Amino acid sequence: MARIYEYQGKEVLRDKGIRVPQGSVVARAEEAREVAAHVGKPVVLKAQVWATGRFKAGGIKFAATPGDAEKAALELLGSTVKGLTVDRILVEEQLAIGSEYYLGIIVNDSVRVKGPTLIFSTEGGVGVEEVAARNPERVIKMNVNSLQGLSSAEEKRFVDSLPFDEPLSPDLARELAGVVGSLYRAFVDSDARAAEINPLVLAQDHHFYAADCRLTIDDNSVFRHPEFGIELPRDMTRQPTELERIAWQIEEEDYRGTGYFTQMVSKIEGPGWVGLHGIGGGGAMIAASALIARGFSIANYADTSGDPPASKVYRVIKCILSQPIDSYVLMGSCLANQEQWHHAHAIVKIFREEARRRPGFPVVLLLAGNKEAESHEIIRNGLRDLPLRWELYGREYIYKTEFVADRVAELMAAYQEEKAR
Amino acid sequence: MQALEFNTRTGVISIDYSKCEPAIGNTSTPTCGFACIKACRLYGRNTLKIENNKPVLANTDAAEIGRLDNECLACEYACWSQGTSCIHIELPLPGIEDYRGNPPIEGQQKT
C-alpha cells in the first residue's frame, strides 16, 4: 500500500467537502511565519513524515505567534523524527477541541466481506485497535456494498447507530453523516485501501474537522493518481533509495510475476551483511530469522515469486549484488507450481557475469519446487567452474533454515578471512 | 548475414553466426545438436527455429516476438554449455552500472 502525506490527504478531504484546519505545507522556516500570519491564530506545526506517534517523538510543535512559528519550523526542518528526516511541515490553525473521535474506511479482506468497512470510534486520537480491545462497545462497524456504494440513508443509519455519551443534535448528526459520505467518496475516488480521520474533532464552533488523516493507496492504482507524486508504490515509511528507484524499473511496466526489491537500510556499514533473495515471503522470513539469530544483518528484502521470467529474476539478483554485501542467500523454498528452472538460468547468467569480480564470494542456494532436479542440474553445470564459494540445497532443507544459516556463517568467515589477507 | 539481433520485451538477444558451429559448417548435425533451439522449445516459446542449418527467428514480426518471447535466457545458457557461446543476451537496467560505480563495490570494475 502506497502512502501519501497528511497534507495531501487533507487536500483530498477538503476537495470532498470535509472541513480541515486552515493552513498550508511549507519547506522553509520563513514560509511557516507567512502561513501563521495568514492564519491569524495560534498554529500547530506538524512534521510530514510517515510515522505515528509524532507528538511524543518531537515531530509536532505549537506556536502562538508567526515569530514562534518560524522558530519552531527552524527546529523541525532538517531534524529527524523516528529516524525520518523532516523536509516539509504542515502549518495549520490550532483547533479549539471539544471532542475527539475516529472515523475510517478500510478494504476488509475477510472472506465474509471482501469490500469496504466503515469504522467509527467514540474515542479518537488513539489507535482504534487499542480502543476496540479495551472498550469494544465504543467501536461501530458497517460493511458497505462496493457495487451499490453508500447511500445517504445508510450514512444516516450509521450515524444513528453510534454510541455517543450524549446524542448528537440533529444538525450535528446531519453534518457527521455528510462527513461519512464524503470520506467514502474520497476513499473510492483515491483508490484507497484505507482512509482514516484520527482524530475527527468536534470543535467548539460545533463543526467536525479532520485534525489528522491517513490515506493509503492501492499499489495497482497508483498510476491513476499522478497528483499524489508517488514514486514507488511500496509500503514504506521513507522515501526510496537510489537503488530502490533503479530496481522499481524491473516491476514498473512488467506484470509477469513479482520482482520485488527493497533495502532494509539505506547505508551498509561494517561486515556481515547478507543479500537475501526469497521466493515467497514465508520462507524468506524464516530464513531472515535464522540469519539474524546468527548475528548477521539483512541488507535487503527481495522476492521473485508468481512465476516471473528469468530476465526479471536476473535483474533482481543484480540489484541484490549491487550492495556491498558479504554473501548472497537464495531461499527458494516454495513448493508451488512455479517452474524453478527460470530461476536456475537467471542464477547462472548473473553469477557467470559477477563471479570474477568477487572471487570467493559466498553463495548459498536453497531452490526447491517444480522442476527442482532439472534446475539443480542447470545450476551445478553453470556454476561449476566459477571462483565462488557456492552450495546448493533442495527440498529436504526447506525446514532446516538453521543449517542454511550455519553454512552462510562458515562460508562468510572463510571469505572475510581471505579478503583480510 | 553475420549476426541475428532482435529485441525481446525487455532485452536484446544476439546470435553471432561467425561463431555458430552449424552456421559456419552449414551442417544439420552439429556437435551442439542445436542446443539453443531445443532449449527454446523446452523453456521458451519457440522463438527460434532452424533454417538453412542455423538458428533464426520463427516469426519475423518484431511486435509478435516481443509479445511471445518469455525471456527464459535458456538459449544463451545452452549455447554456452553445449555450443560455442555465440548467443548473448543483454538485459539493461538503466542506472545500475552508474550506481555500482558510486560507491564502488570492492574488487568490482565499472562496466
Could you characterize the architecture of this molecule?
Chain A is of the alpha+beta class. Chain A has three domains: 22-93, 2-Layer Sandwich (Dna Ligase, domain 1), CATH 3.30.1490; 97-228, D-amino Acid Aminotransferase, Chain A, domain 1, CATH 3.30.470.20; 242-420, Rossmann fold (3-Layer(aba) Sandwich), CATH 3.40.50. Chain A contains twelve helices and 20 strands. Chain A has helices at 6-15, 29-39, 66-76, 128-134, 152-160, 170-189, 242-252, 281-293, 310-321, 341-354, 372-383, 401-420; strands at 2-3, 23-26, 43-47, 60-63, 80-81, 84-85, 89-93, 97-108, 115-121, 139-143, 192-203, 208-210, 213-217, 260-263, 273-278, 297-298, 300-303, 327-332, 362-367, 389-393. In chain A, strands 1, 8, 9, 10, 11, 12 and 13 form a seven-stranded antiparallel beta sheet that branches. In chain A, strands 14, 15, 16, 17, 18, 19 and 20 form a seven-stranded mixed beta sheet that branches. In chain A, α8 (281-293) links the parallel β15 (273-278) and β16 (297-298). In chain A, α10 (341-354) packs parallel to α11. The model of chain A has no long low-confidence stretch (mean pLDDT 94). With 111 residues, chain B is an alpha+beta fold. Chain B has one domain (3-101): Alpha-Beta Plaits (2-Layer Sandwich). Chain B has helices at residues 21-25, 35-43, 62-68, 74-82, 96-101, and strands at 3-7, 12-16, 48-51, 54-57, 87-90. In chain B, the strands form two sheets. Chain B has a three-stranded antiparallel beta sheet with strand order 1-2-5. Chain B is globular. The two termini of chain B are 29 Å apart. Classes of the chains: A alpha+beta (421), B alpha+beta (111). The A-B interface holds A 242-243, 245-246, 249-250, 254, 256, 309-312, 314-315, 318-319, 322-324, 341-342, 345-346, 348-349, 352, 357-359, 378, 381-382, 419 and B 8-11, 43, 70-74, 76-77, 80-81, 89, 91, 93-96, 99-100, 103, 105-109.
